[in-house]
Design goal:
Structural class: alpha/beta
Radius of gyration: 23 Å
Largest sheet: 6 strands, mixed
Number of domains: 2
CATH class of the largest domain: Alpha Beta
Shape: elongated
Oligomer: single chain
Strand content: 25-35%
CATH superfamily of the largest domain: P-loop containing nucleotide triphosphate hydrolases
Number of helices: 10
Length: 301
């Protein structure tokens, strides 16, 4: 286990009779950004809380840095930065006072120049009282608090929540920089393009079970295609009725297909209809995700 930054074995949590997570076996390597995806109630937050020893598992175990998350929780948390999805901050304090307090708890481990740089890049005014902050500024403060000590492991739950698009991009840049410094990031987000942009691997959790762990580039290279054909003469309805082929749209002289099987047969039928143009579109992580959850997968936050 010592070779992995995070590892779980048969991790299971029940809340009474209600399922949290079931038999989750997961390993996160040093220096990678690991995306953790799943709908509401899938078990993402439960898993993170077990890792931080906020809750205890019903059975199984979790390890960080080769240390047991229950027995060695204090030693682990000294090396971890955790941004929860629901951030609670002391409203009467000013941003600077809050950051100073955290720094004193950590024995002054943060670099003042790095902390100042984070505040500047996130455009955060730390002189104001936290109760006067907007939701976005509270999120920025939480990010600075987590990042400023340069922890070996970052556990980020919806880190760009409430931020405008430009600041979201800054956060993603900071995540990439953490990886470049050799640090590890456990990144939970419902914004799939973000995950695709920064994560090396992704784990998909459904109904408490980890159903897939794969490299992002491998997931998005799945053997299905979205193909757009332009014809001189529109093919008759049903021309592309084949196993593994779904017609997504037809408009004027254009037909868009999702092809999972029978690509040669699709091309043969399209050729018979006098193709004017053909365009293939890359598969996104969102499409792969929905392939695992189905088109009615719900809100995958």
């Amino acid at each position: 286990m010592a070779n992995h930054v995070i590892q779980t074995e048969e991790l299971t949590v029940y809340y009474g009779r209600q399922r949290g997570v079931l038999d989750v076996n997961m390993a996160v390597e040093a220096g990678e950004v690991f995306g953790f995806l799943g709908p509401n109630g899938a078990g993402k937050t439960t898993t993170q809380r077990v890792l931080l020893d906020i809750i205890r598992p019903t059975r199984g175990r979790a390890m960080i840095f080769g240390l047991d998350c229950q027995k060695d929780g204090v030693a682990i948390r000294q090396r971890v930065g955790y941004l929860p999805g629901e951030l609670s901050l002391p409203g009467t304090m000013r941003g600077k006072q809050f950051l100073d307090m955290l720094d004193s708890v950590r024995d002054g481990k943060s670099d003042p120049a790095y902390r100042k740089m984070l505040c500047e890049r996130l455009n955060l005014d730390t002189g104001r009282r936290i109760r006067d902050y907007s939701r976005g500024n509270k999120q920025k403060l939480g990010l600075v608090a987590v990042l400023m000590s340069r922890p070996a492991l970052l556990v980020l739950d919806e880190p760009t929540s409430g931020l405008d698009p430009l600041v979201q991009q800054t956060v993603l840049e900071l995540v990439r920089e953490a990886r470049q410094e050799g640090r590890t990031v456990f990144f939970s987000s419902h914004i799939l393009p973000e995950v695709q942009a920064v994560c090396d691997r992704v784990g998909i959790i459904r109904d408490g079970r980890l159903i897939k762990v794969e490299r992002v580039d491998a997931l998005t290279a799945q053997p299905f295609h979205r193909v757009r054909f332009c014809f001189e003469q529109m093919p008759a309805a049903g021309t592309f009725t084949l196993e593994g082929v779904q017609e997504l749209n037809r408009d004027d002289h254009t037909v868009v297909l999702e092809v999972r099987k029978n690509l040669p047969a699709v091309m043969e039928r399209a050729a018979a209809c006098q193709i004017v143009d053909i365009e293939t579109q890359p598969v996104t992580l969102e499409e792969v995700f929905l392939a695992y959850y189905g088109s009615n997968g719900g809100n995958y936050a």
